[in-house]
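Workshop exercise sheet. Pairs work together: one partner reads the sequence aloud, the other fills in the structure field after running the prediction. Swap roles for the next sheet.
Pair: D.N. / O.F.
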Amino acid sequence: MKRKSERNITRVVIATGVSSVVTQLLIIREFLSQFQGNEFVIALILFNWLILGGAGTFMARWITKHFFKPTIKRLGWLSLILASLPSVQILAIRHFRDVFFIHGSSVGFYPTFVFTILTLAPYALLIGFVLPYSLFVIRTENPDYPGSRIYITDNLGDVAGGVLFSFALVYLATPLQATLIANIPLLVATYLLFPLSFRYNPFLLLGTGLVLTILVSGTILELSSIAPLEGDLVHYKESRYGRIMVHKDQEQFTLFVGGTPQFGSQNLIIAEETVHYPLAQLDQTQHVLLISAESGMLTELIKYQPKSVDYLELDPQVASVQFEFGLIKMIPGLRVIHQDGRAYLTNSKKIYDAIIVNLSEPNTFQVNRFFTDRFFAIAKQHLAQHGVLSFSMQGFDNYLSEPQRQKISSLFNTAKEYFENVLMLPGQKIFFLCRSLPIETDIPHRLAQKNIQTSYIKGYYYGNITHERITRLNTLVDTETPKNRDDFPLLMRIMFQQWFSKFSTSPTGFIAVLAILCLIYLVRMTAEEFVLFSTGFMVMGCEVLIIFAFQIFFGYIYLQIGLIITVFLAGLMPGAWIGEKLRSRGRQTLAFTDGLFIVLMGLLILALTKGGDLLPVAFFLIFGFVISLICGFQFPVALYLRGDDAPAVTRTFSADLIGAACGTLVTNVALIPYLGIVWTAGGLIGLKVFSLIIIRMRVDK
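Structure field:
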């Protein structure tokens, strides 16, 4: 009977791991859609998730000791509640977003932080509580059951959840359909957890039926929960890259990708500026490359009668929707290519007369790749001698904030390194024209020479874009601003500063409070707990670092990034199994594995600096697996050294989760934007050196 109870609890723990990972990934995508987010928002979400999980784990021992004795039935009821929460949580995020904030408005750092932590709290606290509670229930019947085994079991579920989401659900299901699929195993495993004599209890049947009803109701409410407050939702699709929606308001169609309005069907001004500013510079236009496109651009472009137009759109669903709703139209010579723009240029040999980059501002690492020194070098190689590169930033009327001035200065200085002439034209957007030959500013005159008719440019250009405004804008450039590089994404730091500047706030208070709380927590922990804290910090920081480096060198290939995340989970389980076998070797083992972390990070720095462009995909996958393997190895050793009792379990689990939370936030928000890739890796090495010193001091004693 004892072994049967263990098997039943093990099934619940595995199913909980599947549910938690799928829910975490769905919640991240949901917040990105609701808050038009970037890596900074992702960092906040993961930080709050892990901190709350760590808090739930930390409270498990105290609550079970004084109020909530561990029993199978109580674990079952908790698991039923857990299975019902993902759908409720997603619906709550969608509903309360427009209750607490003005519909359609952007939200600052602190409101985003508060909203995410409040909406995540019920599920994240409970998920952190249930894992150690499951161990306590097992130990009521088997006191010698090792704590590391529950860690291994949970990780098995985590890996299964990562694989299920990355390679199935993200392609086949909407978010609320995915919560139903991911939580059915937990619902079944929980029902079977209860004793046979209790399975026909009316309260259990009612509770199980209620959870199933909540999960199914979520799928029914999917469309109504994302319907716009104004106009109609005429198209909805979850692609592997994000949420795609088309809103119709009277005769206006607007395409939303990931919650951000991308293109409208009646934006003549942007279409004319984007196309005619660069193409007016050319005497002859034969081959044009568009990196993303929007309404009206192709209609304007066909006026030049090019031989070929290559339109790059990473997500096939985005291009399909634009054609379906007439946001862009098929023209002669058009070739649609579903590939990352930078990856395409790296592998292509085609020469273009014009490369037009029509992307949003570089507020994500993925978009930032199109505004760095390396991209400008690649673009220059694919331009004819007379060719022109064009891209744009947010515009201004009469005043540039300091973050915005630094942003355009960095871009100007970076482009100037590769193009003899760089000119900025003011307007709704600031357009950058980059060329080896001289650049003409009298766009209407050039278009008249070509007999090309326009509406906005012909009627309003001279009144809006005067010689004085052009001169003033270009003289605002600070030539001392550093360039934006792949390995040092300065624009990401500036965008972060601009986010705070927009709401007249500062991250200083948040960082100060976080630092004080971390210091108090670190002072109170043991050496073994600090090793796990630093390891959790390093593994999550390293995962962020590897994904960012992968994006730089290979582009955003979603399946392979999913593989990276999965292998970072997969290495934990065999590592913990090996660590369980060798745990008796104690602190020497922790010191040895800390040394391995330092050596591996040193090898990563060497590889990235000496031949990052030449590294195969397998390098990143193997590296991530080995890092997580060592992390998994350390956990049972540290738990053994702490005594493997209930307090040790909760404190070591918490140290790992809180370290991971801090690693995610600090690496995303501070280390990479302010230090770059190489120095970030160096910072992670420094943390592990400190951990090694502490554990060696304990060994010497």
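Discussion prompt: The longest helix spans residues 646-700. What would you look at next?
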